[in-house]
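Researcher: Predict the fold of Outer-membrane lipoprotein carrier protein.
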Amino acid sequence: MRIFQSCVALLLACCSLIAMADDQAATQLRKHLDAMNSLQGQFTQTVRDAQGEIQEQSHGDFMLMRPGKFYWNTAEPMPQLLVSNNKNIWLYDPDLETVNVREFSNDLRETPALLLSEDVEKLRKNFTITRKAEGTTEQFTLTPKVTEGLFQQLVLVFGAGQLSEFVIQDSLGQMTRCELSNVKRNQTLPEEKFYFIPPAGTEIIKN
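Model: Structure tokens for Outer-membrane lipoprotein carrier protein follow.
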């Protein structure tokens, strides 16, 4: 936009269109998220480096409940459990018999799972949101307004209004794609899933 500083009128017109597009995209995303009080299913997560080479792939199941509650259970190849009850976040490694515990943070840049369970107005405040639609598929791209976070871009993909995948690109160019399957929304989820009680003998590490 700096290149066209001399074209003040054109610049203002473009800014108006961009602001309108962002507002419409945020409104449409809000409709999808407002219709999704809870979500559960299975996931396949693939991590690629900046050159596109697969670094790791994992599978598991998840539960999300807005706002701020999630259960992200990686079963293969290395078991790991991430749980939040909107007050604390637990990261449990059964192989190491350790659990890292820290207070829940409202920093949307920290944990991608939080983005799916947060209030959309917070998303709108912290991200530039654009929308691309093709048939029944909608793709929303969220770019952080503050760039020093853990990731540079988040893409949410909806098919016929249902969240089907999300993609995260970090500051090093690494791409993480989570494809969702057997997804159910607005089911009654057990509250105990969002609170972690360490098994006997587990080392508790508080951050």
